[in-house]
Amino acid sequence: MNKSMQIEVLVALVGDELRPIYKPCIDIDDEQRVRGIGQGCSPSRRIYSGLVLLPALCNAHLHILDASIAEAGETLPLHELVALPTGLKYKLLSKLDQVELDKRISRVLDSMKRKGILYAGVYAELARRGLELVNNSTARAGISARILGQPLTKSLGAYLQLLGEAGGVGLDTVFDLSPEEFAELSSYARRFNGHVHVHVSETLELYQSKDYEIVLQAAPTAAIHLTYLDRDEIMELAESGIGLVFCPRSNMYHLGRLPLLSVLPELLDKTVIGIGTDNAAWIPPYVDEEIMFTYMVVHKDGRDKAELLARALLRAASIDCMKLLRLDTVMVDEGAPIARLLVAEIPEIEWSSSSIISIVKRLPAAPRSTLQALLAAR
Q1: Helix %, strand %, coil % for the chain, to 5?
Q2: Amidohydrolase-related domain: from which residue to which, for each copy (predicted)?
Q3: Would you state the pLDDT for residue 321?
Q4: Which CB contacts under 8 angstroms, 24+ apart, belong to 238-243?
């Protein structure tokens, strides 16, 4: 393909605010980067009617190794599935050799990439073995990952070792360590720009144990789930600068309960937020489906804020998620590599009352590719 060109799409979501610009001129330079976005394309421009240009998608919380045991233990409660070391997940993962695990998760990661999910925060169980698997498979798939190691034994020494090797660790609960050890781990990570993610108040038992108070004191990088927290408790975490990650379908599937998702638009001004899919064994790891589901279930309680909710969800599944994971943040803007931008065919936007809402609701069914792949195919 010609390396330098101009194209026109139906709408582009520009910058970190995802500001919609209709029928923009996208100027692409010889190095396959966006040179500019504006009006006044040349008559020789390529026109892509019905296409939306947006940032690539980002899954903020994913257990990808679980994908290798899809639908195992459908009738079991959460703790019997995922508790270390007795949970069914760990028993089944230990029976799969490295080659088979790699083959299975690589196929799922390739599927994620085809849907435009090019960024992810991934818990890697099985200590060094899991780190190697996740690192190699995400790299081959072309997915930028923040890998969060999980040791085989829950001790401060084991977490510190993985933090040094991977740059990040993921805890099942704050009670994997003592409060003092958890605070030490979080403090150590901050000094070296590392990452500590932890599940918070995912279950009623954890909430009743006031795990969120320990999190407030320790200030890890990100708190995940927040299923039982009320508005004030969520806001307190946000105002402390902790990144917040919600996994609605997982919470509904395992617990029959949703977190307080109506606060999402308010959180954007306080902290970075992300949307995750959690365990790939039971929830397909497609964050576009996650935000559509979330919009549908929250919309009924906040119709007057529908567009604010849709924009918050799109940001949580793209730009904000990248920032939370501290991965290279690629937005639709000058300098962006077109290999990391997404195009999706959503013709309804041409007559839609809200392009943002249409994208959130219709993206899962939309044909899509990277902008680079689209242009190379012509």
Answers
A1: 45, 25, 30
A2: 52-328
A3: 98
A4: 238/267, 238/270, 238/271, 239/270, 239/271, 240/216, 241/271, 242/215, 242/216, 242/271, 243/271, 243/272, 243/273, 243/274, 243/324
Per-residue confidence (pLDDT) for residue 1, from 0 to 100: 45
pLDDT for res 283: 98
**CB contact at 8 A, 20 and 356:** yes
Tell which CATH classification among 3.20.20.140, 3.40.50.2000, 3.30.1490.190, 3.40.50.2300 matches the domain 57-325. Answer: 3.20.20.140
**Global pTM value:** 0.97
Q: Which tokens hold the place of 129?
A: 């073995």
Burial class (CB in 10 A: 0-12, 13-18, 19+), 256: exposed
State the helix-helix crossing angle for 287-299 and 306-316, rounded to 10 degrees: 160
The token pair at 37 is: 């976005």
Distance between CA atoms of residues 224 and 9, nearest Å: 36
5-55+331-376 CATH, one of 3.30.950.30, 3.10.20.880, 2.30.40.10, 3.30.70.1560: 2.30.40.10
Task: Return residue ranges of the chain for CATH 3.20.20.140.
Answer: 57-325
pLDDT of res. 3 = 73
Per-block average pLDDT, block size 10, for the chain (378 residues)? 81 96 94 90 89 98 97 94 91 95 98 98 96 97 98 96 96 98 98 97 98 98 98 98 98 97 95 98 98 92 81 98 97 97 96 95 97 89
